[in-house]
Amino acid sequence: MSTMLTPTISFTKTSAAHISQKPSPPPIHHELSQRIHIPSHVYKHPAAILLELCTSMKELRRIIPLVIKNGLYDEPLFQTKLVSLFCNYGSVADAARVFEPIEDKLDVLYHTLLKGYAKNSSLDEALSFFCRMKRDDVKPIVYNFTYLLKVCGDSANLRRGKEIHGQLVANGFASNVFAMTGVVNMYAKCRQIGEAYKMFDRLPHRDLVSWNTIISGYAQNCWAVPALELVLCMQEEGHRPDSITLVTVLPAVADVGSLRIGKSIHGYAVRAGFDCLVNVSTALLDMYSKCNSVKTARVIFDRIEKRTVVTWNSMIDGYVENENPKEAIAVFENMLDEQVEPTNVTIMGALHACADLGDLERGMFVHKLLTRLKLDSNVPVMNSLISMYSKCKRVDLAAEIFNNLRQKTLVSWNAMILGFAQNGRVSEALNHFCWMHSQNVKPDTFTMVSVIPALAELSVTRQAKWIHGLVIRSCMDKNIYVMTALVDMYAKCGAVDTARKLFDMMEDRHVITWNAMIDGYGTHGLGWSAVELFKAMQKGMVRPNDITFLCILSACSHSGLADEGLQYFNSMKQDYGIEPTMDHYGSVVDLLGRAGRLKEAWNFIQKMPIEPGITVFGAMLGACKIHKNVELGEMAANKLFELDPQEGGYHVLLANIYATASMWSRVAEVRKIMAKEGLQKTPGCSLVELRNEVHSFYSGSTEHPQSKRIYAFLETLVDEIKAAGYVPDTHSIHDVEDDVKEQLLNSHSERLAIAFGLLNTSPGTTIHIRKNLRVCGDCHNATKYISLVTGREIIVRDMQRFHHFKNGACSCGDYW
To answer: Which residues pair with 688 in a beta bridge?
Structure first.
């Protein structure tokens, strides 16, 4: 590709203009005058002049009475002109009403009306009229076939296209370059690029239009490299690329992401004088944006004097694709200021930018605008609106729009399912997936990648197996993204061994696949397994990214591998050139804090090259809670109160630190501040699945239908585990009697969920619990004893990791 459009090609503006010019067809009256005699006074009649100047259907309807009044309606010239004008203005029915009464129809009338059918009606209607032409003994001309071939290509009707191709050959046009270029175009648009090239290769003479057509065919069928190679072949045959060539091939450059080739074409466009054409400049702008050079794209945009709406759309989309939604919105607002009317593409780009920013106010403004533009019936636009509201945390509005859609496409379903999943409304996501299934809408890979993480959040193994089976039946088990989602799902459902089996079965693995498996090991406390897998990744072809290092740091943190974690943190910048983010610094603080190296963690925070954020001080406060360090806990908490004053969870953690140290006056002070500020702790909630139904339990709740039975069972169960050695830890509870303290502990959400699971499943069944908060120390200890006295395995997934309780022990080794 190094020779692509090199400077050796000289191409002046004069020659470029010569190439791009096409001979204009003679006026229709010249063609008629060769067949019949038309008096010269007809050409000079005012009605004739008015028809030539007519620019709209409204004007045409005013002129027709004048034509009839002056007795010109029966003149072949006027008949043909009327048919042509009606067709041009999209009214084939009116054209047919002029055509049908004519007794002696000239061939040109047939050709004109066929063109009208091809442009304004269905393919079947156009073919029906073509058949009538044959019945009326009208000899086809080459343009008849090119019109029909274009309709076949635009509608991707390969069968009809082949039939017309056969008719074209039968009528002796097989060697006509113009006709066969139409055949090439038809096959390319029907995604038969191999057939298109065969037809192109058989052309006795290939002109510039033929070359542009085959290059466009390859580019539009995602064969970018062959498209670029054809530009070279074209030049070798002596054809200089024109503006159409450039506009055609630049998207192929964007597809391969070759900025070098793009710059070469840009240079050629400047030398040839094509850079002043708005379509070429817009194509260059788009290419630079897609090659991650949005600054250059903006320079080109700013130099375009007369921007079309396509130019504005390309700049907005360029900023969106390059993750700069603020600039995308700024360009969109400038476009409105210059009173350029947005199209559906503009609106979708603006909605995407609003979604990325999470800017609900601007998103609602765009919603009002699209309604005013009457785009609220455009399904792709409404799909973008659903996504915008979902990402702006207003999934209720997204659902309202979705429910009001008259035509729900697969993209609509995917947007709504993903919206529910992203907003934590897992049940609704799964319900909509089942609803979609009942409507006989077949899921695609995007659907699966949206719904599988929703199932992962529920941690329900039975449903995980069901969706896995559906993936296999849908022949998606070779898709790398779907399989990665399954690996992640099984790990989050507690089946980390199954996740590893799927991982090993995959022929190709993306970096996100490695990340999912490393993170899976980490959340299950299998730090060494995560380390071994990371080492295997380093030896392979897939390069770790910033998320990979977050996963391995977290895995080391949950398994007490502090020194190993520090080595990986240092390696990410030294060996891989990855700049640590706030999340990486927070992971290191968590790593050191869990290991009890609190002073080292605090010193690490003080030496950070960036201002520490919530993630960092949150990890520090959590470590101080584990290791009962009041001094550092207070310092971390005070920073958090400044950074996030509305979060009550940090006050609760500090109060617990004080309670553990029996500093009850301080506990009272914190609670008083919380009451004054209206701050509340996130209520503990645990989920357990039974017979495809998810049951929710909140701490102290009595709303479940089996509440009385559950609390009665817990009283008996607590007596049993006490007999086995369990001693309740009531040190963090103050101002109530001891028996009340134990009652408060027994009403924690995970204990209610465990009791429900034990009561409603047969002996030997594993109990799966999902909790929204970190498991407290007393519940962790109690669950170990419950697994011992009941002989059950209990798997608890809290907000940070998995705990596998079995035979009186936990997989975390009491390190969490």
So the answer is: 695
* pLDDT mean over 218-229: 92
What's residue 70's pLDDT?
63
Which is higher by pLDDT, 89 or 284?
284
CA–CA distance, 262 with 291 (Å, rounded to integer) = 9
| Three-class secondary structure of residue 509 per DSSP | coil
Single out the residue of 728, 744, 729 nearest to residue 628, CA to CA: 729
DSSP string, 228-288: HHHHHHHHHTTPPP-HHHHHHHHHHHHHHT-HHHHHHHHHHHHHHTGGGSHHHHHHHHHHH
What is the three-class DSSP state of 805?
A: strand
Q: Tell me how far apart the alpha carbons of residues 759 and 89 are, in angstroms, rounded to a whole number.
A: 75
The token pair at 616 is 């960092």
According to DSSP, the residues that pair with 768 across neighbouring strands are 795
Q: At 524, phi and psi to the nearest 5?
A: -95, 5
pLDDT of residue 279: 95
According to the model, what pLDDT value does residue 59 have?
77
In the three-class reduction of DSSP (H, G, I as helix; E, B as strand; rest coil), residue 112 is classed as helix
> How far apart, in Å, are the Cα atoms of 46 and each of 42, 72, 76, 635, 700?
9, 11, 17, 93, 92
- What one-letter code names the amino acid at 792? R
Assess contact for 285 and 318: CB atoms under 8 A. Answer: yes
User: Which among 379, 381, 445, 438 is positioned nearest to 418, based on CA atoms?
Assistant: 445
Phi-psi region of 813 (alpha: psi -120 to 50; beta: other; left: phi over 0): left
Shortest CA distance to 750 belongs to which of 786, 725, 792?
786
**pTM score, whole prediction:** 0.77
Is residue 387 within 8 Å of 354, Cβ to Cβ? no
Q: What's the first-to-final CA gap in the chain, in angstroms?
A: 56
What's the farthest any 2 CA atoms get from each other in the chain?
119
For the beta sheet containing 693-698, the strands, ordered from the edge strand earlier in sequence to the opposite edge, are 693-698, 685-690, 767-771, 794-797, 802-806, 809-810
Burial, 477: exposed, middle or buried (Cβ in 10 Å; 0-12, 13-18, 19+)? middle
- Give 252-287 pLDDT, tens digit per residue: 999 998 999 999 999 999 999 999 999 999 999 999
Helix, strand, coil content of the chain in percent (nearest 5): 65, 5, 30
Give the Cα separation of 726 and 742 in Å (integer). 12
Q: Average of pLDDT values for 625-635? A: 94
Distance between CA atoms of residues 206 and 320, nearest Å: 40
Contacts of residue 79, Cβ cutoff 8 Å, sequence gap at least 6:
73, 98, 99, 102, 109
CA dihedral 780, 782, 788, 789 (to 10 degrees): -160
* Amino acid letter, 542: V
- SS3 (DSSP) at 572: helix
pLDDT band at 38 (very low <50, low <70, confident <90, very high): very low
pLDDT for position 737: 57
For residue 489, what pLDDT is reported?
94
Compute φ and ψ for 194, nearest 5 degrees: -65, -45
| Contact criterion met (CB below 8 Å) for 807 and 788 | yes
Q: What is the mean pLDDT of residues 193-205?
A: 93
Q: Please determine, for residue 402, whether its predicted confidence score (pLDDT) is greater than 80.
A: yes
Residue 728: pLDDT band (50, 70, 90) is confident
Give the total residue count for the chain.
Answer: 816
